[in-house]
Specification:
The protein is mainly β. The protein is about 5% helix and about 65% strand. It has a 22-stranded antiparallel beta barrel. A four-stranded mixed sheet has the order 1-3-4-2. A two-stranded antiparallel sheet has the order 20-21. A hairpin with a 2-residue loop joins β14 and β15. The protein is globular.
Length: about 675
């Protein structure tokens, strides 16, 4: 079952709506009307997307700018112009009762720009939902007996093609961690044995507001967000061998504000103009101290960053040819980002100066694109896009000054074929460019190991050629199987090496870790996900799910020049799930399990291995009526272990100084929540 839908604007006719109404069935669009979800009793649009077979929610990335960071969700045919307000939060604010249907769009059906995504969900809302809202509260209790409450308020009004919504959420919590530290020399001699205890706390308040309505012959959406949060930690290690105590304290606070807008208007000849804008400011403050029997240290940091984005795109009317329809779109984006950071270090009460402890980094970036979707047959489409990115990065501060001009051409090709109902094959080839982490321009200090990092203003972002093949099979109401094979080839990979440099105000040189472009790498990923309805196996409303991801990679270590895998790669990830929807009892329950983690990090003077045991969760929700939802659950996290091998010199020149193992126990937490809609 399918319907071709380009866009939907609540309450206001548009060219896209007229085209959608007149379009014939499209095998690349599957429409899931509200009635499809009735038996599952969803509360929000987010609940509804989780019930669509074969669809995997993608919230996008946190990279700078709009281009290349979007997720796979559309709201009435358009992407929300937000940076900090997540797609998950946006969907959770849309009541299920106001969703007309959700269209699953594959292969750019209807000329929709897929932004490289294989599948996109288009949430179509009711044009006039009146006044609605909800109050929800939850509380979590962990094994240490610490409570973590959460409160959320939402309100929305829709009238005459306009809508106004607002939300407010507040949370706080605390917890304990306990573990054992053991440090040994290369010969096995016990150097340190300690029992670790720590208490952490966190809190935050966030508010959002959104207005949509007619403006200047088109439609406008205005967003506002403010978020204030903080956290603290107080840790103490009781030293058994040798005797003594180590303490660590840290506090951080962040204030974030953002405004955004999107304006669209239909133009003559079937064209559509879209303008996006966003302004974001973030202020960070943090303090920390670390005291041992041998030394004391302290850190005070103040940071501020911001982003300004403006973009425009023009979508042309679909062009009918003897060889199929063709849809074109072109546009450009410009973004300005800055980061200011100042950090003061003290060691044994004396100031410690590091290269990069006072830094300002600016990036002025533009990206222009042209894309086209060719549909030679109803079940076949080819999407081609060419993007040109240009940026200038300027860095000033105690690490030195530098200015870098970067230019990248980023092509993309997507081919999608639907050979039969419920089957789709997709192929993607594209070139991506990573965004530089501004943290690489800043200094760092790890007083516990004596490892210091200096900023480097002269680096380039990694470039990646990505090739992906995807097969999707959808069967029954809830059954699906998806297989993805991905190959990535990296150039100008970033990594850390060691340099010898005399710090400011000192006469003796010191070893520093520094981030540099270190070479190439490759990575292969195979991912398989499936959902199997269990009705025919005697479990009515039951669904079993499973996911398997296999990953391997290879690069040349920039310190030892030996082949190894990339840092922090997880070779195998497995998850299993079992759930059941009891329609007459109005109950849903679920059980989930995921494999533990096993990763390695390769530093210039350290090797770190992290392991964690599998985790499990169970959940139960009950909806006694259409407005009230009650739920509860249990989360069990397995214990973890970290192994740290430290070298006084680069790993290729010396033997380890010591190896340290830390172990912590797992945690169990239980939660209950209630939501009342109106």
């Amino acid at each position: 079952m399918g319907a071709a839908v380009l866009a939907f604007t609540p309450g206001v006719p548009s060219t896209a709506q007229a085209q959608a109404a007149a379009a014939t069935a499209d095998p690349n669009v599957t429409a899931y009307p509200a009635a499809f979800f009735t038996e599952f009793r969803p509360i929000t649009a987010l609940d509804m997307t989780g019930r669509i077979p074969g669809f995997q929610f993608d919230g996008g990335t946190s990279g700078r700018g709009f281009a290349g960071t979007v997720g796979n969700i559309l709201i009435d045919g358009e992407r929300p112009p937000v940076r900090s307000d997540s797609l998950q939060s946006i969907l959770s604010r849309i009541p299920a009762a106001q969703v007309v249907r959700i269209d699953i769009v594959r292969a750019g059906a209807g000329g929709i720009d897929m932004q490289g995504k294989a599948v996109v969900a288009n949430v179509i809302r009711s044009p006039d939902g009146g006044v609605s809202g909800s109050v929800s509260a939850s509380v979590t209790n962990n094994t240490q007996g610490r409570l973590q409450p959460n409160l959320n308020l939402q309100a929305r009004r829709q009238w005459d093609g306009r809508s106004l919504e607002a939300s407010l959420s507040a949370y706080q919590g605390s917890g304990d961690d306990e573990g054992i530290r053991e440090r040994r020399s290369p010969t096995g001699e016990l150097l340190l044995l300690a029992r670790s205890q720590g208490v952490f706390d966190f809190h935050g308040v966030s508010g959002t507001t959104v207005y949509e309505g007619p403006f200047a012959g088109g439609r406008i959406r205005l967003n506002g967000l403010i978020d204030v949060n903080g956290s603290g930690y107080e840790g103490s290690d009781l030293l058994i061998v040798p005797s003594g105590r180590e303490t660590s304290l840290s506090d951080s606070a962040q204030t974030k504000g953002e405004i955004g807008l999107r304006w669209t208007r239909s133009l003559p000849l079937g064209m559509t103009l879209e303008v996006l804008g966003s302004q974001q400011l973030i202020d960070n403050d943090s303090t920390g101290s670390y005291e041992t029997p041998e030394f004391t240290s302290a850190t005070v940091s103040d940071g501020r960053r911001g982003e300004s984005i403006g973009s425009g795109s023009l979508k042309f009317a679909s062009l009918a040819t003897p060889y199929g329809s063709i849809d074109f779109e072109a546009g450009s984006e410009i973004a300005f980002n800055f980061v200011e950071s100042g950090t003061a270090y003290r060691f044994d009460g004396l100031p410690l100066l590091l290269p990069g402890d006072d830094t300002r980094v600016e990036e002025l970036r533009s990206e222009s694109f042209v894309s086209g979707v060719w549909t030679p047959r109803d079940n076949l489409s080819v999407t081609g896009a060419l993007r040109y990115e240009r940026s200038r990065i300027t860095a000033t501060g105690s690490a030195g000054a530098a200015e870098t001009d970067l230019n990248f051409l980023k092509p993309r090709l997507n081919i999608a074929w639907t050979p039969a109902a419920g089957h789709q094959l997709a192929f993607k080839l594209e070139r991506n460019v990573d965004q530089l982490s501004f943290g690489a321009f800043q200094a760092s200090a790890a007083f516990s190991t004596g490892v210091f990092g200096r900023g480097n203003p002269d680096i380039r972002p990694a470039q990646i050629w990505l090739t992906q093949a995807r097969y999707e099979r959808v069967f029954g109401r809830q059954g699906s199987f998806v297989a993805e094979l991905t190959h990535e080839a990296f150039d100008d990979l970033l990594g850390q090496v060691v340099i010898l440099e005399t710090p400011p105000g000192e006469t003796m040189p010191r070893l520093y870790n520094i981030t540099r472009n270190v070479g190439t790498a490759r990575r292969e990923t195979a991912k398989f996900t499936g959902r199997l309805p269990l009705d025919s196996y005697g479990m009515g409303g039951g669904v079993a799910s499973a996911s398997l991801q296999l990953r391997q990679s290879e690069t040349v270590d920039p310190v030892t020049f030996v082949d190894r895998r990339l840092s922090n790669e997880q070779p195998v990830v497995v998850s299993l799930g079992l759930g059941q929807n009891l329609v007459s009892q109005r109950i849903n329950w679920s059980l989930n399990a995921s494999s533990g983690q096993s990763t390695r990090n390769y530093g210039p003077r350290a090797l770190v291995r992290s392991r964690s045991q599998p985790s499990f969760s169970a959940g139960l929700s009950w909806r006694p009526d259409d407005r009230l939802s009650l739920s509860g659950g249990l989360n069990v996290s397995g214990g973890s272990e970290g192994a740290f091998i430290f070298f006084a010199t680069p790993r290729d020149r010396g033997v380890p100084v010591y190896s340290e193992t830390s172990r912590s126990e797992g945690t169990i937490s239980a939660y209950v929540s209630a939501r009342r809609s109106f």
